[in-house]
Design goal:
single chain; 14% strand; two-stranded antiparallel sheet; 2 helices; alpha+beta; 31% helix; elongated; disordered C terminus
């Protein structure tokens, strides 16, 4: 049911984008691209872990790509998608900086990012505990 609602919303968004663009050459192309970009950004937030399901406290930044997150984990063996999204072009540019601090008493922690569906990580970001 959720998939049908999402598809219907996407179709309605696309129709709305065409309706408000008018019929003027390059403006039509730009308006459709901008409308598609806005739609991508709107729906990509649903790929993030719901705030109610996060283990910690998230403070939102200016968009879904920014903010801060603090968590204490105990017997946690899962993934959380905290920040991010999908866009053709992000208003604040495409360069992002991640600043983090991990203190691990036991177990392991891993910080990674997805880029075009592929996991990327710096091997120094895997923190084994002694």
């Amino acid at each position: 049911m959720r998939k049908i609602k999402s598809q219907t919303a996407a179709l309605l968004s696309l129709c709305l984008a065409f309706a408000v663009t008018g019929c003027s050459g390059d403006n039509l192309k730009d308006s459709v691209i901008n409308g598609f970009n806005d739609m991508l950004q709107h729906f990509s937030k649903y790929a993030l872990t719901d705030e109610k399901d996060l283990q910690g406290d998230k403070t939102k930044g200016e968009d879904t790509y920014t903010g801060s997150y603090t968590a204490d984990y105990e017997d946690f063996n899962d993934k959380e998608s905290i920040f991010g999204g999908t866009a053709l072009e992000r208003d604040k540019g495409s360069e992002l900086t991640v600043t983090y601090e991990l203190t691990v008493d036991s177990g392991r922690a891993r910080l990674y990012w997805l880029d075009k569906g592929e996991e990327n990580e710096n091997k120094r970001k895997i923190i084994p505990c002694l």
